[in-house]
Amino acid sequence: MRIHLKLSRSKKPIPFNYQSYLTGAVHKWIGYDNEHHNKPSLYSFSWLQNIDVRKEGIQTNAESSFFISSYDEDIVRTIINGIMSDSSVFFGVSVSEVQLMNTPVFSSFESFAVASPVFIKRRHEGREVHIPFNDPDSGVFLTETLQKKLRLAGISDENVRVSFDNEYTSARTKVIYYKDIGNKANICPVMINGTPEQIAFAWNVGVGNSTGIGFGALK
């Protein structure tokens, strides 16, 4: 299930690296002491959409929004209740409207644009490595992460496969700073083969690592 959150106009510039502040709002609505914070995230959320980019930062307008998706409908209900209690997001911006969207019916193959960069990380020889879209094993790692979440949700992980769209000519990496830590993430569509249920699950929970802090959301 997905909720689209329309935003109020900003009255002052918002920092370009706003991701940690947006994450803070989402976690506030879920509840800081919620059990979901200590488990792999079965939810994802996009970056801000339809914004104005200024020299000094970004600004929201009447068309600005972002979305939050979750396989667990209880999380969605908790978030909606949280917004009703406190609709503030950050820097004077608040949620002005909530629109509910049911999970679409998918086929056995789908291609998705990303609503936030896809982040893949692994440990190698004692250090954290960030995997780019053109790494030969990137699809293997994306598949592994999705399979882990499928098993956590009690859904079969057999025969599901995730990969970047190698034919997309504008694919690129971008270093995203989250609380002053650089994360090399990927801006490239992803392709998913699997059952309609597996693909619907991915559409809700996102792909890659760190979906709970604003990476890997799918349009």
From TrEMBL:
Alphabetically ordered keywords of this record? Antiviral defense, RNA-binding
GO biological process assignments: defense response to virus
Q: Tell me what organism the protein belongs to.
A: Arcticibacter tournemirensis
Task: Name the PANTHER family for this protein.
Answer: CRISPR-ASSOCIATED ENDORIBONUCLEASE CAS6 1 (PTHR36984)
Q: By which gene is this protein encoded?
A: cas6
Name recorded for this polypeptide:
CRISPR-associated endoribonuclease Cas6
Query: Could you cite one Gene Ontology molecular function of this protein?
Result: hydrolase activity, acting on ester bonds
Pfam families (UniProt xref): Cas6_I-A (PF21350), Cas_Cas6_C (PF01881)
> Does this entry carry the keyword RNA-binding?
yes
Give the source's domain of life in one word: Bacteria
Q: Which family does it belong to?
A: Belongs to the CRISPR-associated protein Cas6/Cse3/CasE family.
Domain CRISPR associated protein Cas6 C-terminal as annotated: residue spans: 104-218
